[in-house]
């Protein structure tokens, strides 16, 4: 057991820090800091994605032949942690972290050759077509149909909660190609060009006032059969593979710590709520800091297990659950520190485009972020689903 | 001892409920919000016609002489429909201050107009540096031969943009957080040197920061001629907090009903969500929170005219526990609505925003717990 | 709406206070204060029961013809509240509050004449034979059999959690007289003389170290048929009627307030944990005090509804749930105030029989009471059962 | 960075687990409790033979030079079986103080005996009025020509009745809560004027109040000749708290496993209790609490030899959160066991008692949160 990084790891950390010092511009940091939504806007994440790509760091989880940097688990942890500490935007996960691994694992050589470089270099912007209005946690009940017509599928139906559909030129989707068997069977995994005729996008505003998600309608949308991943009817398998990536969570402590620091910074300033020398606030900050310490050490334990080739067990639900709960605790505390400034509702978006507002800039994202953060315990497997999984896999119930 | 409503109270509560259900459904609220209009003058006249504006005002000046219990019932109905009226700012805070501290002339001048719906008054007291300490007033008032000159800044002034008058607190003498030496001044909204920075308010309505730069007021602008108005400020603030507690109860009630209806009908895996015991138990806890809030809001109203320390303890106790309970209910209502809960497509989010407003107004859970403990310290000493 | 007591009610309160001042001796108060178990010991409750009986106040809920004082709901509230404030023992509920109402409602004239006066005057001491080792919340699954043999039932089986079986000379029990139909059918309600041959009692110590409950074994115990209440096979109905009384809860705020005052008294003294001027303790006391305020006003709302002939609705589960949770919060806080004195485990019982102990007397019952109070959320319908009921009756789920 | 155990650590953990499972089942514990016997001398010798007593002691004096991580692993195994040994009092506190502050002669004299199992040492530091403030020492030591004279009283001294020596803190100079001027003294348990009032300890073992009335000790009784021993007291106390955190993790683990097994097999309404989603979710939260406790206990051990402020923050963070988590797990284990949970018939209650002991020892949740916040204040200032 060794609680410090090796010389190689320290050298890598230094390299990451140097890269961040030069590539992460003050404008990027400001824009990310003023982003109250869950995902970074495309106009924030794209430049950062390109900067990473130019360094060969855009796709940490990919194998070398696909353009991944072949990092150890420790390096991935260091990279994510340093990026979070520095306040870097997040790269849109739909390409690199979601559809990318599916194409790498299940795609044809042609699909790999076509899509992976465009993901890596930020030429395509992807969105995810999984949820439907009636499906909720019961994803397999999806109804959007793809009917074979020659060498095309003709797609009809609707997807909801589609993050950044209004930015995306590509969607990966689960569609129903057969409804005669079990509902999990007869689902296929398909890649859809978002510029295809017959697609309409309806924005859905979040309670924080942000346009992040959408409903997407398909009206006789024709998609070439070659856009199907793997076999027809096995889409559920591919989709689950991807969800495991989505739920992984993994390296969140550093980002939470930055969020808590934002609360501390506000409490040191003029925000008219609880000041930093309020003992009750100090205790709450400590509670959250300790929660983050626990999460971070759990992450490091998992990272160590991966590093030594061991299976860390069924911990991704635990990480997701605690990350989302701690995030919500931080945003709630931030609202307490705002005091009466929480009453001011700024509807303009993006916030980083505002030239002047009644509130100091440091306070601007707080209330929208609190509101939007309610989604953390709902999307990507609600906390209720996570508790079901934990009871089953960790407690054996 | 009888805590059941009188016939009169029951009728008030029912008529308010009917009015709100008829006029404050989600569609109407959305339309008003999209039209960007403030609170409708027509509705305000209807409030006047229904006697609601006169309700807590003294009978000598056109009021009905109702108490905090009646106000609480009205507010509960408002909460059920998320009514975004300037009722608390004008009737409870503004007119409440006039009724509590105004001279006979000031009362006779202003209160009947409020009761008729012809005058709106905003209450400009809080300051940013005060952090909810009601005695912390840096705005100062200097007397000269022509009257008063006010300089300073106020924050979190509700509905100032549509008010005719502002009641502004200012320090006449003493140091910044002294209990003594604070006066309340009647200032026209369009007084020279008085500037408003108005924003949308979280959960509905508007909120303003008020700037006061050499604002000249007449010698008779000082409410009741009173140079020690802190007890009045504390009393009307407690009354307003109690009223908001009543409103919060109504909001919590609607959230529980809406959420129960949702999980009974929304199906997943071929069954309604309500088959999940974890969700049913969550809703049981939400229902318990509503009942506890109902009891404490009523308790705060019942203590509204008690000795100041008893009143303050009852109000702070209610504000703290309802603040926490309402947050729990609203957040869980969002959670149980799933994806739909975190959009502006449903009303749930609007309720959550109003709950955050409620919690921030006059101080949050920690502030009121601390106030409760401080007011209780003497009684707990050996 | 009127938040003060009427002149009549105030006069009654004065009468209760005067009675308490004379009848409640310092020894009784001390013994009750040093009782860490849920029920008062028989040697504490009996003298108090007799004092009440001599005043005609032993059975507040009974009709006048049975010897009840015909109090209004307000009077009952005042009486219970003043008794709690004064630190009076609780009267054993098994007779007056449990079997008494059943006999009054369903008993024969002979049963009424025989048992009610003996309950009222504290001549019989009752225990309750409901739960069985296998039954838990599923009470109707009980297996203790009563087989008819001439004009007797012959009883075989076992009951558990039998409070004060070791003190009781009578038991009311649910026994199975038929197992051919639904499990709720075929249960009969029967009164058993505890001195009958074939009864053995096994003590069960609570985690607080107290002997309060027992397991009772029946080995061919013969009970006259005239000891059956009502009809054979309808015992479940009678038993449920009784449980509604048990769950009522009703008037608990004053007792909780006294418990909180005990914490405050300790924190004002030499207990080596959190002192009264610790701000964190002050906030916790306020939180609990506010919880009690809410419970008390809920009780008063219910009392007012009863007083005006209205139905207060399905609130008894709410009162039981909150009363038990607040009680546990108080006992937990008491342990915090004890600090290092919580380490000292005093095994002697009864505590009021101790002449000297390492701990100051005020601290003696704290840890046992904390431990025993865990039972509050388990017995008489667990908190889980209460939440099931609340979801059903108050939320309509 | 590698937080997986080394081969050596793995073997230690496994052998401790085996030992505890074999010797510390419920029956054995109950028999010992009923026999009223203290900790068995034979088992203590076995501890010595297994190298556990030597584990954290310096190699120069018969120790194995292990660290807090190894101690934590041992303690976790102890916790799983609710071992009630004087390990913490003798090895971590008593010998720990000697190892940290003793002169070479004192170390050479005492530590090998501890490692061999031939000497037990209790640590008498806490005083009633201190309320967990480690600097608050009223017991005083006066030097004269013959050595030292100690007067005062100590509380919560673990396992003093079977100890050969006590390490007693006493104030040499300064005022009651001064950081400076505290010494640690080696006192034979049978020293004249030293009295023990011994009680059973909640959760197993014994606890004593120690009276010191003119206790005469030699001039060489002062540990390491050190007159400013507070940093040593803080360090060994933090080490002991970290060790107890490890033990608590083991207890929590057993409670979760036992409770899971119970609700899977116990039937109600013809189905196992585990069909209730509310219970499954409760158990999920309990399992999460165990994992968080495991991480924080390890973290406290990893920081055991860091800078004092970092060590103290890590330990207080762990103590606070594990204190709350262990209470939650133990109370819910009782709850989910229903009626059986609140009797002495099952082991669940014994675990709950040990959890209360854990929480009270060295200060509870509030104390350690406050300490964490105070230690963090400088880093949070603007």
Task: Produce a short descriptive summary.
Chains A, C: Residues 6-121 form the Acyl-CoA dehydrogenase/oxidase N-terminal domain. Chain A is of the alpha+beta class and 397 residues long.
What does this structure look like?
Chains B, D: Residues 232-361 form the Acyl-CoA dehydrogenase/oxidase C-terminal domain. Chains B, D: InterPro entries: Acyl-CoA_Oxase/DH_mid-dom, Acyl-CoA_Oxase/DH_mid-dom_sf, AcylCo_DH-like_C, AcylCo_DH/oxidase_C, AcylCoA_DH/ox_N, AcylCoA_DH/ox_N_sf, AcylCoA_DH/oxidase_NM_dom_sf. Chains B, D: Keywords: FAD, Flavoprotein, Oxidoreductase. Chains B, D: Its EC number is 1.-.-.-. The complex is a heterotetramer, with 2 copies of chain A (397 residues) and 2 copies of chain B (382 residues). Chain A is 45% helix and 14% strand. Chain A is of the alpha+beta class. Chain A folds into 3 domains: 7-91, no CATH class; 126-235, Beta Barrel (Butyryl-CoA Dehydrogenase, subunit A, domain 2), CATH 2.40.110; 248-393, Butyryl-CoA Dehydrogenase, subunit A, domain 3, CATH 1.20.140. In chain A, the strands form 2 sheets. In chain A, strands 1-4-5-8 form a 4-stranded mixed beta sheet. In chain A, α4 (73-86) runs parallel beside α8, α8 runs parallel beside α10 and α10 runs antiparallel to α12 (383-393). The longest helix of chain A is centred in the C-terminal third of the chain and has 29 residues, at 279-307. The radius of gyration of chain A is 22 Å and the shape is globular. The model of chain A has no long low-confidence stretch (mean pLDDT 94). Chain B is α+β, with helices and mostly antiparallel strands. Chain B has 3 domains: 7-116, Orthogonal Bundle (Butyryl-Coa Dehydrogenase, subunit A, domain 1), CATH 1.10.540; 121-227, Beta Barrel (Butyryl-CoA Dehydrogenase, subunit A, domain 2), CATH 2.40.110; 231-381, Butyryl-CoA Dehydrogenase, subunit A, domain 3. In chain B, 52% of the residues lie in helices and 15% in strands. Chain B has 11 helices and 9 strands. Chain B has helices at residues 7-23, 26-35, 41-49, 68-80, 87-101, 104-116, 230-265, 277-302, 308-336, 348-360, 365-380, and strands spanning 121-124, 140-144, 147-158, 165-171, 182-188, 194-201, 206-217, 267-268, 271-272. In chain B, strands 2-3-7-6 form a 4-stranded antiparallel beta sheet, with no helix packed on it. In chain B, strands 1-4-5 form a 3-stranded mixed beta sheet, with helices on one face. In chain B, a hairpin with a 2-residue loop joins β2 and β3 (147-158). Chain B is globular. The chains are: A alpha+beta (397), B alpha+beta (382). Chains in contact: A-B, A-C, A-D, B-C, B-D, C-D. Chains A and B meet through α10, β9, α11 and α12 of A and β6, β8, α9, α10 and α11 of B.
């Amino acid at each position: 057991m060794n609680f410090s990084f090796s010389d190689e790891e320290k050298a890598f950390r230094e390299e990451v820090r140097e890269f961040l010092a030069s590539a992460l511009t003050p404008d990027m940091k400001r824009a990310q800091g003023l982003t109250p939504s869950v995902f970074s806007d495309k106009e924030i994440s794209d430049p950062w994605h390109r900067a990473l790509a130019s360094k060969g760091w855009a796709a940490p989880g990919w194998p070398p032949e696909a353009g991944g940097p072949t990092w150890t688990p420790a390096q991935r942890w260091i990279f994510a942690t340093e990026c979070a500490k520095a306040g870097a935007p997040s790269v849109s996960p739909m390409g690199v972290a979601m559809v990318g691994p599916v194409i790498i694992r299940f795609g044809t050589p042609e699909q790999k050759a076509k899509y992976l470089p465009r993901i890596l270099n930020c030429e395509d912007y992807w969105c995810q077509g999984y949820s439907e209005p009636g499906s909720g946690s019961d994803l397999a009940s999806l109804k959007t149909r793809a009917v074979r017509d020659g060498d095309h599928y003709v797609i009809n139906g609707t997807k909801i909660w589609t993050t950044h559909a209004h930015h995306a030129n590509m969607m990966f989707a689960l569609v129903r190609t057969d409804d005669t068997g079990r509902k999990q069977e007869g689902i296929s995994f398909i890649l859809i060009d978002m510029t295809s005729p017959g697609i309409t996008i309806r924005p859905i505003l979040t309670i924080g006032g942000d346009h992040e998600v959408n409903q997407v309608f398909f009206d006789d949308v024709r998609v070439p059969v070659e856009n199907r991943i793997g076999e027809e009817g096995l889409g559920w398998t591919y989709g689950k593979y991807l969800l495991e990536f989505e739920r992984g969570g993994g390296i969140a402590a550093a980002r939470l710590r930055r969020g808590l620091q934002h609360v501390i910074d506000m409490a040191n300033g003029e925000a008219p709520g609880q000041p930093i020398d309020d003992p009750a606030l100090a205790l709450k900050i400590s509670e959250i800091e300790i929660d983050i310490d626990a999460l971070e050490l759990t992450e490091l334990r998992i990272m160590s297990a991966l590093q030594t080739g061991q299976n860390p067990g069924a911990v991704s639900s635990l990480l997701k659950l605690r990350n989302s709960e701690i995030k919500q605790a931080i945003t709630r505390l931030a609202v307490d520190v705002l005091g009466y400034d929480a009453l001011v509702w700024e509807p303009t978006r993006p916030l980083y485009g505002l030239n002047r507002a009644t509130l100091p800039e440091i306070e601007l994202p707080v209330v929208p972020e609190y509101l939007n953060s309610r989604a953390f315990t709902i999307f990507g497997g609600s906390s209720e689903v996570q508790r079901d999984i934990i009871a089953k896999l960790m407690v054996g119930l | 001892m009888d805590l059941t409503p009188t016939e009169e109270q029951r009728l008030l509560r029912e008529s308010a409920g009917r009015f709100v259900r008829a006029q404050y459904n989600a569609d109407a609220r959305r339309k008003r919000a999209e039209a960007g209009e403030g609170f409708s003058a027509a509705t305000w006249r209807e409030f006047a016609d229904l006697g609601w504006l006169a309700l807590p005002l003294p009978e000598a000046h056109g009021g009905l002489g109702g108490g905090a219990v009646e106000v609480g019932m009205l507010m509960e109905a408002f909460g059920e429909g998320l009514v975004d009226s300037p009722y608390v700012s004008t009737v409870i805070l503004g007119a409440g201050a006039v009724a509590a501290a105004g001279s006979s002339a000031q009362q006779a001048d202003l209160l009947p107009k409020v009761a008729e719906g012809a005058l709106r008054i905003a209450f400009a007291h809080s300051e940013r540096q005060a952090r909810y300490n009601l005695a912390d007033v840096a705005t100062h008032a200097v007397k000269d031969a022509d009257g008063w000159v006010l300089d300073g800044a106020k924050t979190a002034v509700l509905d100032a943009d549509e008010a005719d008058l502002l009641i502004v607190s200012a320090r006449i003498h003493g140091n910044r957080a002294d209990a003594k030496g604070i006066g309340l001044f009647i200032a026209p909204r369009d007084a020279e040197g008085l500037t408003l920075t108005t924003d949308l308010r979280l959960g509905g309505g508007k909120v303003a920061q008020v700037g006061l730069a050499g604002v000249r007021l007449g010698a008779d602008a000082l409410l009741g001629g009173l140079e020690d108005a802190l007890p009045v400020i504390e009393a009307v603030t407690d009354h307003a907090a109690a009223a908001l507690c009543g409103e919060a109860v109504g909001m919590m009630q609607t959230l529980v009903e809406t959420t129960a209806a949702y999980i009974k009908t929304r199906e997943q895996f071929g069954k309604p969500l309500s088959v999940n015991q974890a969700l049913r138990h969550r809703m049981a806890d939400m229902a318990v929170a509503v009942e506890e809030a109902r009891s404490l809001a009523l308790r705060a109203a019942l203590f509204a005219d008690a000795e100041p320390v008893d009143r303050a303890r009852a109000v702070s106790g209610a504000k703290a526990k309802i603040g926490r309970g309402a947050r729990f209910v609203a957040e869980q209502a969002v959670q149980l609505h799933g994806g739909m809960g975190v959009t502006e497509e449903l009303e749930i989010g609007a309720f959550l925003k109003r709950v955050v407003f409620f919690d921030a107004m006059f101080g949050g859970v920690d502030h009121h717990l601390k106030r409760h403990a401080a007011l209780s310290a003497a009684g707990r000493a050996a």
